[in-house]
Each structure stands twice: as structure tokens, then as C-alpha cells.
Amino acid sequence: MILTLLPPVFAFLLALVPSLKYSTPLTWDIYYHVHNAMLYMDRGIVFWDPLTCAPYGRPICYPPLFHIMLTLLVKITGLGFLTVARFIQPVMAFLIILSFSYIAGRFYGSLAGFLTGMLSISSLFFLRIIMPIPEALAMIFLPFFVYGYCISMENDSKLYPVFTGIILGVLMLTHLLSAAMALAAVLISALAFRISRHAVKPLNLLLIILTGFVLAIIWYAPLLIKYGFFFRPPPADPLSIVGYLNHLGALLTVLALTGLICALKRRERRDILMASWFIFVLALSAGYTVGLKVLSDRILYFALFPAAAMGASIFNSMKVADSRWPVYVLVLFISVYSLCSGYGIASTVKPEVSESELEVAQWFKYNGDHKTVVVSDYHIQPLIVSIAGQPVSAGGYAPGSKDTIDARKYTITFDYTEDDIRIDRVGYIILDTKNRKTPPYSRKVYRNMDFVVYRVEV
């Protein structure tokens, strides 16, 4: 038990470093999620967001559980949304690494569980582990889902599939990509089980899927009936071989590949599950080579758990000169290396938003009209809408955007008319300070080191 708890405690302490160092959350994504949480707090569970993609608005296609969690934490603690987001960073890190260590321990024993947690800390993906985003919440549940599925394939009881299906539903209501990756991994492993002559219980697998979908449909059905569902895939962002090594880390990569070879030799149920999961994610992350629009680093993140678990498993039976002591020394070395690597990440990471962007958002909070639309570069808009409640032309989460105004004509070409302003309800234009031109029909009302805010008047 102590071995299982050590890695999450280390992860908590490491994630505490940037959480105390900076007064804002680390990730830019959180501002979009804070905005959704604020909508829920003000209006209840709603499916329409009138403040982003303004003046049109858009359906809220992002699953709600993370936003509901933020809302509840704010109500319970009495703290602000951004303060809560900042202080759940170490909590998320603790719970993710605890999940990794515990489930890997259930598969391969306590030593492997300990090393799974430590190797995960050594990876560059530790940076994502400490981010307060829905993906992090989903990553806590993902290993439990896979473990529940594995038990369901060995047991005739219908209790395990139902509980596993509930976890799938939670994943679908938290982060759709995580749910899709988890479901794909178990379906592919089920095929691998059949090929390797391990028992598969199709009815239990079907019960898992049906339970998950029934739970998820509580939120998805009203959305689909009223607005439909749409998703704009982002442009592909491939990784080179060096990129793969950088994200997983050289040590974890070597151990994972060694563990994969050992797993394929043993071919036990747990080994087939981990190996098929790992290989599937690696193949999908390279999908850009056949024309798929994938963010390779985001996909590769889902290989972290099976990679670390397989890499850790090779130490279970390892001996040097018929002695285990050299192995324990090696485990100590890996632990120290992992902590140093994790500290290097935690001590150097900086918030993805600048002070200048926050200053602009604060200016709108106290000086904006909270009615007309702000047109600006994409990055600053989630801050403005979440902090100030001012309508913006985009607002973050581009895959969930439908109808938007042409921001380029207001911020780059200045090719717009008075009628365009009235139709688009544009009230403010934000440019960077490098731009020397004043947009037509506007006057400067605020300036800081990086941005100039213009009030549009017709």
C-alpha cells in the first residue's frame, strides 16, 4: 500500500510547485471551461452559449461533468473559479498517478504499480497530468474502466460489466476523446483475446457499452434533439520520431518496448490487453501518414499508462546474479531520475496566458458594455468571455464552433462597412501594439504593453 501511495504523493508535491508559484492556472484551455461552468452556475444545465461565436452563439457540445465539478467546488469553497482551477492542479496529479499506480499494481503487483507511477512522472506528459482540464479528470477513471473490462471478461457476474459501463458513461460525460480511446482499446483487445484463444464474454462487453451509452444519453439526447452534434477536426499536428522520444522520455520508451516484447512472449490476458492498447494508440498517433487529421501528441498521451505498466512489469522477475538487490538499486535509480525529471517539468512550466492578456480581460470586466462583440486574435478571447462576460467572436474550443463572423476583415484587412458592424454587432476590436493603423469607425480606449483596444462606433 505504501508503494502505491508514494508516486501520487510525489506527483502532488511536484504539481504544488507551479500551483503556488503562479496566481493563475497553467493552461489556456481552462478559461473556456470556466466560462461554461459560469453559464451552469447562472442558468443551470443549459445547451446554448450566447456569448461565444457571437453574435450567433453556439450549442455547448462539450460534455458537462468537469464544468459541473468546477461549479460545485466553487459553491462549496466560496473561492473563485480560477482559484479553484489552480488548486485542483496538484489534486488532479495525485489522483491520476494514484489511479495509474493502483491499477498497474492490480495487474502486475505492487512493485510494478510503484514504478508505473514513477515512470509516468518522468514523462513529458506529466505536464498534461497537472493541467486542470476535462482530459485530466477522465484520465483518473480510464485505468479503472480498462481494469473493470478485464475482470468482466473473466467473470460471469453482471455486476462488473454494469459498474464498468457506468465508468464508461462518466468518461463520455467528461471527455469524449478519452471515452472513444478507451472504448476502442477494449474492443481491439477483445479481438486480440479471440485470436490468442482467451475467453471473451460478448454479453458482458455489450452490457458495458449499453450501460455507458444509457448513462451518457441523459445529456446527449437533449443536445442532439435540439441542436444536433458537430465537430470540426483540428488540423493534423504530427510528431517526428524525436518527438515521440521527447514526449515519452528515452527511459520509458526503452522500458516500454522491452516490456512489450516480454508481454507478447507471455501472452497472458493482462499482457494482451496492454500490448494491443499500446500498439493501437501508437498506430493511431501516426495516422497523419495516411491522411487522418490527428493531434499526435494528444493521442500519444493515451499510450502513457500501458507503456509505463509494461515497462514496470519487467522488474517483477528480474534478477542479477540470482539476487534481487541490484534490481532494487536500479528501481531506486529510476525513482530518483523520475523525480528529477518531474521537478524539471514542474519548476519550469509557465502559464499559457500572459499578464497583458489578463489585463485586457480585467479591463473589459469593469469597462466593457457586456453587450456588443469583441473581435480579436483567437487566443485572448476565452479570457475575456470568462473573466468579463463580454461576448466574443470565437471564444475557444474551435472544434465546437459553427457559425462565426469573419474576424480577418476587422483585425487584418480592415475591409468592412458600417452595415457589417451593425450586422455583426461588433463593439470592440483588439490589435497588438505592432499594428500602427487605427481600424475604421473606431477610437482607442485602452492600451497596455502588448494590446490596443478600440471602441467601434457607428
From TrEMBL:
Which keywords does the record carry? Membrane, Transmembrane, Transmembrane helix
- This protein's source sits in the domain of life called Archaea
Q: Where are the transmembrane segments?
A: 65-82, 87-105, 166-193, 205-225, 245-264, 271-292, 298-315, 327-346
Q: What is this protein called?
A: Uncharacterized protein
